Every structure is written in structure tokens, then in C-alpha cells.
Known about the structure:
By secondary structure, the protein is of the alpha/beta class. The chain folds into 2 domains: 2-120 and 295-325, Quinone Oxidoreductase, Chain A, domain 1; 124-262, Quinone Oxidoreductase, Chain A, domain 1 (Alpha-Beta Complex).
Amino acid sequence: MHAILNGSDGHLHWTKVPDPEIKDDQVLLKVAAAALNRADLLQREGTYPPPPDWPEWFGLEAAGTIVAMGKEIEAEGKWHIGDQATALLGGGGYAEYVAVPAGMLMPVPKDLSMVEAAALPEVYGAAYLFLFMEGKLQPGETLLMQAGASGLASVVIPMAKAFGARVITTVMNGELAKAIEHLHADRVVDTSKESLKDVMQEELAAGHGVNIAIDCLGGPTVGECLPYMDFDGRWIMIATLAGDSTTVNMRTMYARGTRLIGTTLRRRTSEAKAELLSDMVELIWPKIEDGTIRPTVFAVFPIEEAEAAQDLMYSGKSAGKIVLTVGDQQEM
């Protein structure tokens, strides 16, 4: 089969690689589409290698058709040859085929294309983890979602609103603010014109301070904003694209009961991920199928153009998920 490899010349190449060999508790998924994530860029830069026992090539989420099954999975009878599924992966999605532990599979929600289904597992799993498992989101709380034009934000914002939250998000400019209007955030902060710290101070004074922040940026802004969280607020760090360091006033943290939480989905065990995915199918899939929540696909590329797709993500100009198609898949 073929997969996208990071070449020694610094470019991505559609390259011949060995066919996957499935274990007894795995299925072989013929990939129709695979979605991009920021972790792919970190992996390309050599700072975020895949976990043990996963392929070296990129791809944390994919959708396709089951074409083979291990003995355990066949005996269980939950999945069958020909079933369409979407999968959370430790790596290996940028390929024609991928071996997937059955616990990492989810059914494709009704009326979703393969392109849309590929945009679900990693980002919806991460959103579920951050909002409900780490953030303990409750109806009526206020969420701050940093980087509102990101693929993660395109899921987190409507998911949080579907469960009764008020949402504030940030963007770098007015163009991106217009691009995310369809997400219906309650307040969009254009950081080229206003300070997030000032906005948070204003929101707190108005009686609806931030209860949960999901932050992929980090940098000095974290320490500036933490004193203006509501009481018992949870600031969840998932990446540090704007810098690894900040200065924190620890007195305000303990006085206000603020929690600073670092977490990622990728580091969790397969067993923990399988439990999360099962809960997510039960809680979130019905809201996808009735149209309350829907994946936002910004751009679709054939997999041979994976480098161009990653370059688009690097540019910061995307507002939603970027997806690669394998073979003759339709865009939507």
C-alpha cells in the first residue's frame, strides 16, 4: 500500500510501505478520508512522535470501510466486513489502509459523508475530554475557547452551546471573526483590537466570568488572564503555540480556587480512549445525527497533496477541519 512519509528532503511523499498486519483484536480499515490535526505538524517537526506500536506516518483520525477482522472481533459480532466506521488512531491515517483496535472504532453517524466522518474522532474525542472529563462543564457556565478559527474550536464551540454553555472565543483578525460567524459564539474577541485580559475582567465584573478555558496558545496571556477567571475556574492547557512560559500570580489562584490543568488525548491508554469513545457515541452522536452539532470542513485535498494541506494549516488561514481523501472519494 501507499502512505504519506516525511522525507529526508523536508517534503511529504506518497510512498510505498508494507501492508498492515492486523492482530486478533483489530480490524483493517480501508481509508476513504483522513483529517489533519496540529499534532501532525508537530510530528513533522520531530517533536511529537507516534506512540509505540503505531505506524511512523501521520494521521490521528480516519474514516473508511472494514475489509478484514481479527479472530476476536469476528467472534464478538459487533463489527462486520463492509461496515463503515470512523477511527481514532495513534498514527497511520494518511494511508490506503490502517490496522485499528476495535475499541478505537465508532460507527459513521447517519447522513454523514466519509469526509465529514473523518473529521470526528480526534477532534470530537478531544472536545469531549476537555469539556466534560477535565472541564466538568455544566449548563449556564461560560467557556473561553482560544483560537476560535481552529478545527478544535469548530467542534468545541457548538458542542458547548448544545449543552447550555455561554461561549467566548478569540481570533487574530476580523477576517477570521467573519469566517466563524456560523459557530454562533456569544462573544468573539479580535485580539488585534482588544485585550483578552480586559475582556475577561469585563465579563467577570458583569457577573458571568469564565468558568472553563481551553487553551492551545499558552504564552504570557495565560498568567495575565488567570486572575480574572470566575471562582473555581478551570484553565485547561492543551498546547503552547504562542509560548511555553508565563508568569502566574499564585495568590490569586488559591484565593479564587483556580485550577490549571494540562492534558492531551493522545497520551491516554487505548482502554481509556475506548471508554471515552463509547461515552461519546452515546452522548454526542445523537446531536450530530439530528443536526444540532455538525463537523465544519474547511478544505479537502487528495492525499497526494498532503503537504499543501499541512501548509494551509501552518498558515493559520483555515477555519475548520482540513481533510485528505484517498482514492475517488467525493468531497462531501
